[in-house]
Design brief:
Elements: E1 33-35, E2 38-40, E3 64-69, E4 74-81, E5 100-103, E6 113-118, E7 122-123, E8 126-127, E9 141-146, E10 151-163, H1 169-173, E11 179-191, E12 195-209
Parallel strand pairs: 4-5, 6-11
Antiparallel strand pairs: 1-2, 3-4, 3-9, 5-6, 7-8, 9-10, 10-12, 11-12
Length: 210
C-alpha cells in the first residue's frame, strides 16, 4: 500500500488508516489449559523442563467490548469501525472521545492476524482516550475483552512515531502468522490547517488468554 500525501482536514481528525482485508485470517479453536486441577490463563503457566512456555493458542472470532491499558489507567469501551467510502478507516465519534475504535473487518482480540485499534488523542473538549499513548512502556500489557467473556492479553513490543507523509503501511498493517495488535492515535506537532504531523503506533503481540 502506498502512503498518501497529507491532505487538509479538520484539526480533530486523526490520520485515516489504510488497511487490507488480507489481515483477516483463519479462525482457530482454543482449549483451556489446566495445571494441577486449576485453570490458568493460556501463556502464563510455568515453563516445562526449563524451556520457554509455548505461546497461547489463538482465540476464535468474537468482537471486542473494551480495551484496558493498565500502565495508562485506560479502561475504555470499544466500538466497531470500518473503512469509509474513501477506503480509509473511520474513527470513533468526536462527541465520545473516550471510545476506542476496533477495525471490525480485521481480526478480533486474540485471533490470528494483525488487529487494529484506534482512538483520538484529543478533541475540541480536551484530552481523549489515547492522550498518553506514546508513553506506553515496552513490556506492559494491553487487555482486550470480548463478547464471549474471554480476554486477550497482549504485551507491548515497541512504540513508534511515524510521519504521516512517510507512513509505513506494510510494517504497521501487514499480515501476521500470530495474533498481533496495533494501537494508533495522532502524534507529532499540531497544525491548525492540516492537523497532527505524525501517528503514534503501538506494536504488541498476544501473550496470554483468559
Amino acid at each position: 500500500m502506498v502512503p498518501r500525501r497529507r491532505r487538509r482536514r479538520p484539526w480533530h481528525r486523526t490520520r485515516a488508516y489504510r488497511l487490507t482485508r488480507t489481515a483477516v485470517l483463519v479462525t482457530v479453536l482454543v482449549a483451556a489449559v489446566r495445571c494441577g486441577g486449576h485453570e490458568q490463563p493460556e501463556g502464563t503457566g510455568p515453563a516445562a523442563h526449563g524451556r520457554a512456555a509455548p505461546p497461547p493458542r489463538p482465540l476464535p472470532r468474537s468482537p471486542a467490548t473494551s480495551l484496558r491499558v493498565p500502565s495508562l489507567g485506560v479502561d475504555a469501551p470499544v466500538v466497531g469501525v470500518r473503512l469509509g467510502a474513501d477506503r480509509q478507516l473511520e474513527t470513533p465519534p468526536l462527541d465520545k472521545p473516550k471510545l476506542v475504535g476496533w477495525y471490525q473487518d480485521g481480526p478480533t482480540p486474540g485471533e490470528t492476524g494483525t488487529a487494529v485499534a484506534v482512538g483520538h488523542r484529543d478533541t475540541r473538549t480536551g484530552p481523549a482516550v489515547f492522550a498518553a499513548l506514546a508513553q506506553v512502556p515496552p513490556g506492559s500489557r494491553i487487555e482486550a475483552r470480548r463478547v464471549d467473556g474471554r480476554t486477550a492479553v497482549y504485551t507491548v513490543d515497541r512504540v513508534r512515531v511515524f510521519d504521516k507523509d512517510d507512513f509505513p503501511d506494510k510494517e504497521v498493517y501487514g499480515p501476521s502468522s500470530r495474533p498481533e495488535l496495533r494501537v494508533l492515535t495522532c502524534g507529532g506537532l499540531y497544525n491548525r490547517r492540516t492537523g497532527y504531523t505524525s501517528n503514534v503506533v503501538v506494536f504488541a503481540h498476544l501473550t496470554a488468554t483468559r
